Amino acid sequence: MASSTLHTIMMPARDDGRGPALFAHAAALAKRFSAHIKVVHCHPKAEDMMPYGVVIPNFLRKQIEAATQQSADTEENFVHDKFSADAAKHGVSEQDPELNKPTAKFYEYEGKQVDAVRHYGRLSDLICVPKPSKEEDLGFNTLKSALFSSGRPVLVCPPSTEVATDLGRHVAIGWNGSLEASRAVAMAMPLIESADSVTVLTGGHSEHAATAEEFQDYLARRGVSSDVVQFDVRGNVGRQLLDKCSDIGVDLLIMGAYHESYERESLLGGNSATIVAEAEIPVVMVH
To answer: What DSSP element (H or E) covers 243?
Structure first.
């Protein structure tokens, strides 16, 4: 029986077409755990829209402030309406948090989205972000802020709106005994304990770190049965993890992320960057 749960799920929202897929993932988990979803939309501060290093006449400043506010109100109303439609579609009540009931509420934040993720994410049990798009150059800063500034687990969601109601039925855990992997397990324990099947994927080992078998024993002491699948590391470990997930029918991967720096992995194609780019299933990442 699961002994931990998710109470609060945070997701950023903006007019980029990714809201429905992101909310579908958040809603599936909210309904399983009777959690509250914080849907956070951002609009820029008026001062951020002022030309930098240029003296602005007072009348022009007021015009810019008025235009910024009008634009913010228009987008807020549009995104809020889309959120309300998504909440109704997925059977999540749009209201304040209530125990033992999946709920969601729209929050407006003045400032940058990366700051909103930091602000609301630190008091959430899970942050849902869309899979970044290299072609559109969209989503990378949000993912980076969630991973490195919130101290919370981050669910990277693929762009599909078709999400199974039992998301997390078969969970795989990427285990190499690293600090990041250990943190991922601790923070994602509600998902691990509530899964029907848990598979430990291991292809590497950190010096002086717990083995996959020791980790399996640790899970057993929490009442979680698991299987261990080992593989020989050849080439990119991230791609091998994804291949193994596909082979055994995993629908959610949990892993430590960016053991190297974010910039180094993104530039050189590290394991975490590969999974972010190529995963077709949701991935919980923890730095």
So the answer is: helix 237-248
Question: Of the CATH numbers 3.10.150.10, 3.40.50.620, 1.25.40.10, 3.40.50.300, which one belongs to the domain with range 8-157?
Answer: 3.40.50.620
- Strands 126-130 and 252-256 turn out to be unpaired
Amino acid at 250: V
Lookup: tokens for 91: 């059977």
pTM, entire model: 0.91
| Locus of tokens 């193994």 | 244
d(CA 62, CA 55): 13
CATH 3.40.50.620 for the 170-286 domain, yes or no = yes
Identical fold between 8-157 and 170-286: yes
CA distance 60 to 67: 11
Dihedral pair phi/psi, residue 222, rounded to 5°: -95, 5
175: left (phi over 0), alpha (psi -120 to 50) or beta: beta
Q: Which of 206, 190, 207, 210 is nearest to 198 (CA)?
A: 190
- Which of 83, 108, 77, 80 is CA-nearest to residue 26? 83
Domains of the chain by residue range: 8-157, 170-286
In tens digits, the chain (287 residues) has pLDDT values of: 446 899 999 999 988 889 999 999 999 999 999 999 999 999 888 777 777 777 888 888 888 888 888 888 899 999 999 999 999 999 999 999 999 999 999 999 999 999 999 999 999 999 999 999 888 878 999 999 999 999 999 999 999 999 999 999 999 999 999 899 999 999 999 999 999 999 999 986 667 789 999 999 999 999 999 999 999 988 889 999 999 999 999 999 999 998 655 555 554 447 888 999 999 999 999 99
User: For residue 5, what are the CA distances in angstroms to 50, 188, 221?
Assistant: 44, 9, 18
